[in-house]
Amino acid sequence: MRAEKPPEMRRAPLLFAMCAVAALLGCERPANVGAGLAPPPAVAPSAPPDASPPSPRDASPAAPASRAPADAAAAAPADAITLLAGGDVCLGKALGQELLRDPAHDLFASVAALFAAADVRFVNLENQLSDQGGETQHPRQPLVFTGPPAGADALARAGVDVVSLANNHMWDYGKGAFLETLDHLERAGVAYAGAGRTRLRAYAPVIVERRGFRVAVLAVTGIWNQGSLWQHPAREFVAAAERDGLAAAVRTARKQPGVDAVVVSYHGGTEYLDTPLPQARAVARAAIDAGADAFLGHHPHVLQGIELRRGRPIFYSLGNFIMKVRRTGPAVELGMLARLRLRRGAPPLAEICPVRSEGLGTVPLAADPRRAETEAAFLERMRHLAAFVDAEPAIGPFAADGCAPLEGSAAAAPAAPARNASAIR
């Protein structure tokens, strides 16, 4: 017999949809969603009402509140922008100690060229940012860690526009450290999705505007380290994954006037597993069917396969980006960036840019002294992973910048593979 969901989970689709609708319309909080919770701020990237003016990144949690840069007001709106999405970034543990020693250390220097070529840069931030008296990892619990406050500045210097905070490490040092994380990101001008000071804000999309083109970013987590998120106090602050509720939120964002694209970040699955879990598949496909332009998976710490659905890419796991993990080996070291050319009224053009973890940093394919070896290993890895997903695309030839197109991502019907393309089969 199918186990009955707890009351919190049965109410989740309605709750998620109500939060998303309220946030996007900029209206008052639904009466039955958490007594005493205030609506999200009308203006500024993930900032409280009394915060300083928004940064030039122009990200906002409420659709009506987004503001275009002053110099873009007279220009014709862009028909497309480029979003570069990275996988798991952990600024705790050894990386956190490095930032404590040298707060100006540039963790993202190796990918500066790729970042500079994008309009919007997104990563999954796999840690809190809090001052624990020099501690960046619990001495007796190695899976409990935090980045120092300087981590927010490192993200901002690199040009990261939006991070997802919807993940299983967002309560490692408790509520105080969680709220401190929001403070540091707001101070640095880095917008965040999937979390907030209220439930309404946590489920609200972040809207980023570039040259008149507006993309909504939603983030949710299906993993929580302290038991069920639905039954944990953090449910008021972190967005939990639920298929129908997420689909409703995507539809709401999609219908909002002025929103040109919707991107979903999902934290879930099983660590070091090649196969996407059925739950991840269901959530991803529901999000795409509801109107999402791309689905970005995090948490397994290894690459997982890519699907094209309705011409839109599903990245079940982007793998590690800037993260020192316990395990070693090619499967853990290989990750990828997803480069999405988001287009108004059309599916995105998708490219993948392999990266390789080395030491405390990452090496993009274009700068890899072992480029030929890494490229071959990456393609072999993707061929292996294709056995676990449907609608496998083909990877086109890699360009000088270390990125390759996903053939068929430009339209609902797959295009003919490029010459020398590697079919993921």
Automatic annotation (TrEMBL):
<comment type="similarity">
    <text>Belongs to the CapA family.</text>
</comment>
<dbReference type="Pfam" id="PF09587">
    <property type="entry name" value="PGA_cap"/>
</dbReference>
<feature type="compositionally biased region" description="Pro residues">
    <location>
        <begin position="38"/>
        <end position="56"/>
    </location>
</feature>
<protein>
    <recommendedName>
        <fullName>Capsule synthesis protein CapA domain-containing protein</fullName>
    </recommendedName>
</protein>
<feature type="region of interest" description="Disordered">
    <location>
        <begin position="35"/>
        <end position="71"/>
    </location>
</feature>
<feature type="compositionally biased region" description="Low complexity">
    <location>
        <begin position="57"/>
        <end position="71"/>
    </location>
</feature>
<dbReference type="InterPro" id="IPR052169">
    <property type="entry name" value="CW_Biosynth-Accessory"/>
</dbReference>
<dbReference type="InterPro" id="IPR029052">
    <property type="entry name" value="Metallo-depent_PP-like"/>
</dbReference>
<dbReference type="InterPro" id="IPR019079">
    <property type="entry name" value="Capsule_synth_CapA"/>
</dbReference>
<feature type="domain" description="Capsule synthesis protein CapA">
    <location>
        <begin position="82"/>
        <end position="325"/>
    </location>
</feature>
